[in-house]
Structure prediction request, 245 residues.
Amino acid sequence: MRLKNKVAIVTGGARGIGQAVSELFAKEGATVIIVDLLAQGQEVADGINNNKGTAEYHAVSVTDRPAIEQLFKQVNDQHGKIDILINNAGITRDRTLEKMSEEEWDAVIDVNLKGVFICTQAAVPYMKSNKYGRIVSAASNVGLRGNFGQTNYAATKAGVIAMSKTWTVEFGKHGITANAIAPGFTMTDMVKKIPEEHFETIKASIPLKTVAQPIDIAYGYLYLASDEAKFISGICLTIDGGVSR
Prediction:
């Protein structure tokens, strides 16, 4: 198993890509700590535990610094370390720039960018003390290419890429790698709501002529979180079927 005896925190691990990451990591031997405000996280944890994996669910917001710091300390105290941090939690509040409210801007910045900052800042001291860490954060091909109506979202995802490159320089000497993953269209609940005719147009624009399944993205996270990627840091792995070619 590629993550045997590793302790992995997965934010936004209750559904979609995060759920796929949580389940795959557990299958590969990790103790998975699911951090999500969705109560579905408990169902995901129960499913993992019922299938001979190990998982916990904690209803904590990534924007709540005191709660995150307390949780990460609890995880380290209980399990003796934090090996992997998957910064997956994210939201959208799509609107064109001229119509976007400051509240919509702030909401996306708080979760997608500041939340990654808070969680990483909380995890790094434990990784440094163990001289080992894998930080993998959710970017998006929108952070590389931009997208209509997503000024706030694109800004956060570009920021995640830049932060990961910075952390590579700051923490590499402590045995910590920092990378990002940029998914394209993935069959999550959000994508399932797209009208059929628009969905077909999207598929036609992708060189592979289909959208990703959450597990396709999860395997990218698995690779960057594993020891197979021990000499990979500061990259953004794009998984979008060839759109960002």
